């Protein structure tokens, strides 16, 4: 299932801004479609191994919204609440624990965007924005959640506009922060 034609270049730009402002190792943006999260953008900093970035981007291109998943992005999407995952508290062989260690990150923070109740009264979100933060990043969880949520209105506006599907997954390895370079996934 391919993401519908949305302004993907703008989603990529939003995600790169989040990466740079948060001091994250990686940042990603997904939209909900039926019972899945569909990746709109994924960026990594200049330290993130391109092979790891490519593997993560490929494995999270489309993910079933299974509440038993070990991924923080699924937790945020299914609960309608920010999800904080700490590598030290998670299995090193699956889910967020595996990816955080591969990224060289100590925690990730995933926030649901556009949360509204579904017909049964359960939380349903339009998307998820997440960052993986290195150990040296001492920003509080609350501050990072607030920073991520500051992009909610822009995400929802761009999602509604449904324009240019250009854009790609990127790594900043070949450029400097703020100038993402595409990498193949």
Please tell me about this protein's structure.
The chain has one domain (8-182): GAF domain (Beta-Lactamase). A six-stranded antiparallel β-sheet has the order 3-2-1-8-5-4, sandwiched between helices. A two-stranded antiparallel sheet has the order 6-7. A two-stranded antiparallel sheet has the order 9-10. It has helices at 8-22, 50-59, 72-79, 95-103, 141-149, 152-161, and strands at 26-33, 36-44, 62-64, 83-86, 107-113, 116-117, 123-124, 127-133, 170-171, 181-182. The model is unreliable at 163-185 (pLDDT under 50). Helix content is 33%, strand content 25%. The chain is of the alpha+beta class and 185 residues long. It is globular, with a radius of gyration of 15 Å.
Q: Give the strand content.
A: 15-25%
The strands making up the biggest β-sheet line up spatially as: 3-2-1-8-5-4
CATH T-level topology? Beta-Lactamase
| Mean pLDDT metric | 85
The strand count comes to 10
Helix fraction by DSSP (H/I, runs of at least 4): 25-40%
Number of domains: 1
Overall 3D form:
globular
Report the span from N to C terminus: 15 Å
CATH architecture: 2-Layer Sandwich
The protein's oligomeric status is single chain
- Discrete helix count: 6
Question: Largest beta sheet, briefly?
Answer: 6 strands, antiparallel
Measured on Cα atoms, how large is the radius of gyration? Answer: 15 Å
Structural class: alpha+beta
Report the CATH superfamily.
Answer: GAF domain
**Uncertain residue ranges:** 163-185
Order of helices and strands: HEEHEHEHEEEEHHEE
């Amino acid at each position: 299932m391919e993401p519908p034609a949305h302004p993907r270049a703008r989603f990529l730009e939003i995600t790169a801004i989040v990466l740079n402002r948060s001091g994250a190792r990686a940042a990603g943006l997904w939209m909900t479609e039926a019972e899945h999260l569909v990746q709109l953008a994924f960026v990594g900093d200049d330290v993130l191994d391109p092979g790891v970035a490519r593997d993560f981007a490929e494995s999270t291109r489309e993910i079933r919204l299974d509440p038993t998943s070990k991924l923080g992005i699924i937790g945020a999407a299914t609960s309608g609440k920010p999800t904080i995952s700490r590598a030290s508290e998670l299995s090193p062989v699956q889910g967020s624990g595996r990816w955080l260690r591969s990224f060289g990150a100590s925690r990730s923070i995933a926030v649901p965007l556009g949360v509204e109740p579904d017909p049964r009264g359960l939380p349903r979100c339009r998307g998820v924005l997440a960052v993986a933060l290195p150990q040296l990043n001492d920003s509080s969880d609350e501050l990072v959640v607030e920073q991520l949520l500051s992009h909610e209105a822009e995400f929802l506006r761009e999602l509604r506009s449904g324009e240019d599907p250009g854009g790609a997954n990127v790594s900043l390895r070949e450029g400097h922060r703020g100038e993402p370079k595409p990498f193949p996934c």
